[in-house]
Structures are given as C-alpha cells and as structure tokens.
Amino acid sequence: MKWLALLSLIVANVVKVPTPVVKTSSGLVRGRVSDNGLFYQYFGIPYGYVSEENRFKAPLPPLKWKGVFEAIDENIRCPQRMVGSVVVGDEDCLRLNVYTPVARTAGVLLPVMVYIHGGCFFEGTGTAFLYGADYFMEHGVVFVGINYRLNVEGYLCLGIEEAPGNAGLKDQVAALRWIQENIKGFGGNPDSVTLFGESAGAVSSSYLISSPAAKGLFHKVILQSGSSLAPWAMQHDPIKTASNLAREFGHETVDPHELYQILSQRSPEELILAIRNPQHKNYITAETLFVPCIEKPIAGVEPIITEHPADIISSGNYTQVPMIIGYNDNEGIYFVAKDFGRRVEEVDPRELLTPDLEFPGDEKRNATAQQLGEYYFSKKEDLVMDVVQLYSDLHFKFPCVLESELYLRTSRRPIYFYVFKYSGYINMPKLVSLFGGRRGASHADELFYMFKPSSIPLPQRYLESAMIRQIVTLWTNFAKYGDPTPLSSDILPVRWRSSSGWNPTALVIDSAVSTGPMWDEDSVRLWNETYTKYRRKSFGHYGLVLGAGAESYR
Which alpha helices (DSSP H) does 102-213 contain, by range? Predict the structure, then answer.
C-alpha cells in the first residue's frame, strides 16, 4: 500500500492534467492544471509573428493553427546571452503565459494583471522560470506574463522603415491587444487590466503610459524600480549605437540603410556576442545599450514614442490611470556587484557620469564630478556602499522622482508611493551578489516575495509567508479595487493612502510597516541642480530637442 501511495504521488506530478480548451483568435488552446489543482496554466501562447521581413519592425498577428495548440512549453525566451559566450533563446519567442483560477463564479470576469519582465532590455523572460504566478492565483485575478524581443532584435533604431525602432515595445502593445481580444475566454475582464513591471518592465510601462498606441489597453499601472527618464532607459544616439556594433563586423558607416544591410545579415547570436562594454560599464552604465528610442515619424509606421516622455507627461497628454510607484532603498547593490564586485578600492566619479548629461567642456565635467565625489565619497568609510548609493540615486531614485513629480502636476488620478526596505530570507539578488549582510533591499529583491520561480526551490520562502501574503494582497487589491488597502482589508496596520505634493508620503515596507517621505531631499536637490544645468537637450539623429517645460523639475 505504501508503494502504491508513492506511485500515485509520482504519477500525479508527472502526468499533467489538461485544462479546458479555450478558443482564441488564432485557434484552440489547451494548457494544464497546476500541481495543486487550484489554477489553470497556459504556457507559450503565440501573440505575434516575426519573419525576416519584419525582423526589426512591429510584429504581425500570430499565425493561425488547426486543431488544438498544446500550451505547455514554459521555457520559451527571446535570444539573450546566458553565461559568457553562451546565447540561449528562440527567435519565435513572442509568446505569453496565462494563469487563471479553477474556482470562478460563472459569468463573473476577473481583473487581469499583465506583467512585463525586467532585464535591462537585453535579458529576462516572462515565464515561470522566474515569475511563477502561483501566489496571485490565491487572490482572484487572471495573470499574464509576456515575452518581448530584446537587445538588437528589439531596439535597433535606425529611423527607416526597415528598422524604425522600439520593436520590443511594439511587441508589448501587440500582447495587450491580444489580451483585449482573447482574455475573456480565460475568465479575465478586458476592461480591468493592470499593467505592472519591474526595472526595464517598469520603463516599458512608463513608455506605454505616454504612447497613443497603447491607449485604452490598460486601466491601472504599477511601476517598480524603473522610469523612462532614467539614463539607461533611452538610446541617446541610436545611430552611434548601431555604428559601434557594425564596427565589430569591420564596417565604418553612419548611414542607416548601410547599417541595416550590415546588421540584418547577422544572426541574433552574432549580434549579441558582438556587443562589447568597457570595464565598470557592463550593465546600466554601458555605452552600447539597445533600449527604447524616440522614433522618427515614418509614413505608414505606427510609432510608440515620437517625443521625449518628459515632454509628454508635462503636457498631460498621456493615459491617466491610478498608479503605484516605488523603488527599493539599496537598488544599486546588484549592479555595483556586477560592475565592481564586493569591494571598491577607488572610484573616479567622472567614469560614472551618464550620457544623458552633456558638459560644455572638461572644466564643467570635472567640477560636477568633484561635487558628486564630495557628496558621496568624502567619508571613505564604506566605499562600495557609497557607490551603491550613487547608483541607486542616479539610475533609479532620481528618475522616479522626476517622473512622479510630473504625474503629480498633471494627473487627476490617485498615485500610491512605496519604498521597499525589507531584508529577509529571499532577497535573492542581494544574496547572490554576496551582499547578504548589508541592510535593506537590492534591485529586484521584492520580486521573490511576489513570484514563485520554477528555477529556484527557495525552501526558505516558508519563513516569509507573511511578507509574501502582504505584498501580493496589496498588489491584487489595487488591481481589483484601485486601492491597495480598501476599507474591507486588514492586511496592514495602517491604510496606504494616495499622496500628492512635493515629496509625497510613501508606504515604507519593512519588518514593521510605516509611512514616511518618498525621497531624500538632499540627494534630489543635488541631482536636480546637475540635470537642470547639464541635461542633454538633443536626442537621437533626428535633432529632437527636449522641450522647455521639462528642462527643470523643481
């Protein structure tokens, strides 16, 4: 009998139970029931199609199929570098994953939460590999995770019809349109879609807020640790970026048509492996980053962004929806560990200045670097954490402040702010960076309190059930009610209220939840003065100039 019981358990975990068949615009889809029997999983559903003809352009509609599509492949990702010179991924990667609860009231459609993954626009996947939506299924929502093209495939921006730019963002718009057309079949409400993302996913969401192409496709937004105003969130000179890459193949040109001919003949793997970054500029500070751009208007091509997002938000001409905006207190840990390791012996602030700052000469550049050095590095007691603080402020906190300020000036919808400071057993980015003994939360630490990754067992997550329940409840409450702590909720000892005005009140998520100011005013003042003087005014090879309304933020 014991052997029979063991055999039954093994069979239950090996033989996956199929879900009901769902009709979509491309054909019938069947997934599988989760191991615990509580929700349906549909993995790898095609939402778009890319061929050689539209390799760097917006996706075409997915190809139709006959019979039933078995949506059970949970490992699809777009091409990306994994380790060293190993490139993984499938060019046919425009797929999405749908999770929906088994127990649903007949005729009642559930709120939909659409997650856009991070990864600096050159890595990541929207699958259960990192973003298993198991915890969300306990809260009465439908969850969708999406893949989108990355790196050169997603963000070659030449300003010509063959490569207009932002193919990866156009993938996201196509996925949102697919959701509008098909999500009812999975029990989701297309009129209640919450868009949320972290890092590059938050940057993507920020761009979609500003884009007419995405208008009406979502109704609430959560921005976690990312802003379209961040230095790494935009190609400042996309022709130079493409030209640098072409040089790796032995070509010297700035002609966009020649660049297209050179790069389109290379495989995704060749393009990815050709990208070189100098020392200490491996991630968000790299010079050859293929990320979103401001597009040149082209007849017959639907753009995502044709103006600087600061100008769009300043004008109020964007999708105004309820929002949650926040970041982690020590965002920079993960990136400093990648760029420097656990120790920093010395640092030259000039090397950390970003390409969205333009100086009239070396004297001004050196003076600015000296000012930053005096603010961040004068004590020299813990240099690595000083660099962490500079990375955190420059690449995450200050851009978030700028974007938040512009929304607060122009939006009529509620905005909720948070700072995540919790340091627990599953702050995985901090732990894998070997900064586990440091206080606070690194970039992406909060994600492991929201998702159940299939790639990492994390048995210690059982010690963090309270924090997991708290965060997921706040996020799903917002999706369901537009308020993370409605009157019927007892998830927090205090109500998390929307806030406005200069330095709004934020929910501080730590061992003990509290409220406090959203940002540190001294660091904001320093970076605001710097950007007011030296913010880059021209973007791309189109001569686009940042509008006067967005030059100074406070």
Answer: 128-131, 151-155, 167-182, 200-210
3-state secondary structure 86-112: CEECCCCCCEEEEEEECCCCCCCCEEE
- By CB atoms closer than 10 A (0-12, 13-18, 19+), residue 462 is exposed
In degrees and rounded to multiples of 5, residue 254 shows phi and psi of -120, 10
> Which residues form the catalytic set?
199, 331
Q: How far apart are CA 274 and CA 282, in angstroms?
A: 14
d(CA 465, CA 451): 12
- Counting as low any pLDDT under 50, the low residues of the chain are 1, 4-12, 549, 551-554
Helices marked H in 275-427: 309-315, 333-339, 349-352, 362-376, 383-392, 398-410
Triad 515, 519, 523: Cα angle to 5°: 150
Q: Which amino acid is at 498?
A: S
pLDDT at 552: 47
% of the chain residues with pLDDT over 90 = 83
What separation in angstroms does the CA of 412 have from each of 36, 257, 288, 408, 502? 42, 44, 38, 8, 16
What does the alpha-carbon distance between residue 59 and residue 127 come to, in Å, rounded to a whole number? Answer: 20
The residue among 210, 271, 236 whose CA lies nearest residue 78 is 271
Residue located via tokens 């030209």: 243
Sequence-separated (6 or more) residues with CB below 8 Å from residue 141: 110, 111, 112, 113, 476, 479, 480
User: Distance (Å, rounded) from C-alpha 152 to C-alpha 267?
Assistant: 10
| CA dist., res. 506 & res. 327, Å (int) | 11
pTM of the model: 0.94
From the list 514, 430, 513, 419, the residue with the least C-alpha distance to 469 is: 513
